[in-house]
Write a structure and sequence with these properties.
By secondary structure, the chain is α/β, with parallel strands linked by helices. The protein has a single domain, classed as Rossmann fold (3-Layer(aba) Sandwich), CATH 3.40.50.880. The chain is built from seven helices and 14 strands. The strands form two sheets. An eight-stranded mixed β-sheet has the order 3-2-4-5-1-10-11-14, sandwiched between helices. Strands 7-6-8-9-12-13 form a six-stranded mixed β-sheet. Strand 12 and strand 13 form a beta hairpin. The two termini are about 25 Å apart.
Length: about 230
């Protein structure tokens, strides 16, 4: 079984006192102490981000670690990744992250890990990256379409309720045919895919939603999808 859990936002980095999404991810591994590896590439391996990951996950039933491409902490990258149960990708600059992954060959290793049953998850940059296209937001610039790893078909827009420019930008890109139909997720919402198909939608917050967005003729249709609240 191949699984991706794409979070629109939330988890330990956005909701440090509400780890419902993180617990949900861990619960998908049939082991007492899953090996979960945090990949903070998109933040430039920000020290505080890595520390917050360990602070949260050391309170959960798992064995946490992290992967650094800036100060490599592995002997063999492929072996390091493939021995994990969960790869958890943090937020930040999606484009820079993908460039660095390609340089190291991590993009192909992650695809191999997925095929072998390693669960791929993350928020923001860590959710956009799994799709063919994602809507990303460079600082002080318009949102634009970015090509992801293409493990999941279609497009994705995170932080749908958390940033006011997300919805209109996503609608515009879909309407103009610049990106394919896809899924948007509010902060606190996770899209759980199994074998490439949407299996379940869950949330750590009440009244948070996901949406399917597609073009129909000269307009955009947005269908609201209600998650299962984990609280």
């Amino acid at each position: 079984m191949k699984q991706i859990i794409a979070m629109g936002g939330g988890g330990f980095s956005m909701e440090p006192d509400n780890l419902l999404l993180d617990r949900y991810v861990l619960a998908q591994v049939p082991k007492e102490l899953p090996e979960v590896c945090f990949v903070p590439t998109a933040s430039g391996d920000a020290d505080g981000y890595v520390e917050r990951f360990y602070h949260a996950f050391r309170t959960l039933p798992c064995t946490p670690s992290h992967l650094s491409l800036f100060q490599p902490n592995f002997a063999d990258l492929r072996s390091f990744v493939l021995e994990k149960d969960i790869i958890y990708v943090g937020g930040g600059n999606t484009r820079n992250m993908l460039v660095l992954w390609k340089e190291w060959g991590l993009d192909q290793i992650l695809k191999e890990a997925y095929e072998q049953g390693v669960i791929l998850t993350g928020l923001s940059a860590g959710s956009i990256c799994w799709f063919e296209h994602g809507v990303t937001d460079p600082l002080n610039a318009p949102l634009y379409k970015l090509e992801g790893l293409g493990i999941l078909q279609g497009s994705h827009c995170p932080h749908y309720d958390g940033e006011s420019k997300r919805r209109p930008a996503y609608h515009k890109l879909v309407l103009q045919g610049e990106t394919q139909a896809g899924y948007a997720a509010d902060d606190g919402v996770a899209l759980h895919f199994m074998d490439g198909r949407l299996y379940r939608i869950v949330s750590s917050r009440e009244n948070a939603h996901a949406y399917h967005v597609e073009r129909e003729g000269n307009s955009v249709q947005e269908v609201e999808l209600t998650p299962d609240f984990l609280g």
